[in-house]
Design goal:
The protein has helices spanning 2-14, 17-35, 52-57, 60-80, 85-99, 106-125, 127-134; strands at residues 43-45, 48-50. It contains seven helices and two strands. It has a two-stranded antiparallel sheet with strand order 1-2. A hairpin with a 2-residue loop joins β1 (43-45) and β2 (48-50). It starts with a helix and ends in a 7-residue tail after the last helix. The chain is mainly α. α2 packs antiparallel against α4 (60-80).
């Protein structure tokens, strides 16, 4: 167990600072999506309280679980230095626009596009991030 914790510790330390945040955010989003399964809180949409049953009936619970799973997958990919992890993270950010039962405003969509572009530049153009992903072991031997 100690060896596993050391491996995790060193892999996270190897990540550039903002990429560590993306990794932590991804894993936390996955954990929080599990909380969607339990009726432990009240839900609000546009400042209107809805019941747990209404939240699920409206499709919000399923959406939250899908988004959380996508973020978890991207977080695992970031940790394992996979080639698809950066795309998966950006896709996870954009998917709420398509899955949410409540249609987002154009302002929200535009702001999200700007953030995705900024994060995309960081993930694909920042030298330290490129170096992190380029040190992945080749599967070919």
């Amino acid at each position: 167990m100690r060896d596993i914790l050391l491996i995790v510790h060193f892999r996270i330390k190897e990540m550039p600072l903002l990429l560590r945040f993306f990794f932590a955010f991804s894993m936390l989003a996955g954990l929080l999506s599990v909380l969607a399964l339990a009726p432990i809180t009240t839900y609000k949409i546009n400042d209107q309280k809805i019941t747990y049953q209404e939240w699920w009936a409206g499709g919000h619970g399923v959406t939250m679980i899908i988004i959380g799973l996508l973020f978890s997958i991207s977080g695992i990919g970031i940790f394992k230095k996979t080639k698809w992890a950066r795309i998966a993270f950006l896709f996870s950010l954009s998917i709420p626009v398509f899955l949410t039962p409540v249609r987002p405003s154009i302002d929200y969509i535009l702001a999200l596009m700007v953030w995705i572009a900024i994060f995309g530049c960081y993930l694909f153009l920042k030298k330290s991030v490129k170096n992190y992903f380029s040190t992945a072991k080749s599967k070919r031997g």
